[in-house]
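FW: tagging you since you asked about this chain on Friday. Here's the raw sequence from the shared folder, copied in full. Didn't touch anything.
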Amino acid sequence: MTDTNLTETSELDSTIVESANSEQDQLPSPGQELKKLREELGYSYGKVSESIYITAHYVKALEDDDYEKLPGQPFIKGYYKAYAEFLRADTEQIINSYLSCVEKFNNQNTQDDQTEDSKNRNKTILWTAVVVVVIGALAGIFLL
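HL: got it, structure written out here
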């Protein structure tokens, strides 16, 4: 195979990977899926909240994937399950979609934390070096 063919194959492979990643990012979240189904069925937030015994505020937070407004992960999974069952959606798919969103969020936070740790470590090294230089300079001045 020539270098040109290798380059073209490599570019094609990277395009396929990018396409798959962008398709995955474009998949609807569990909240978006349930909201779409609820609207298709003509149900209001009130109807859903009465049927699955949670507040309309929680129903909206589920649809918006606003997990900060909801209690912990076990409750969120239970709410999604009840909501999906009420709408006769694929419960397992909704839960898996939720878990995928949580995993993606956790991975992003881990990367952010690692970057922050690296920045803090660099600052510590810099300040340590500055202190050593200042102490050395002061020692030189006092010893002369």
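FW: The radius of gyration is 26 Å.
HL: agreed, and Residues 91-143 form the longest helix (53 residues).
FW: great, closing this out.
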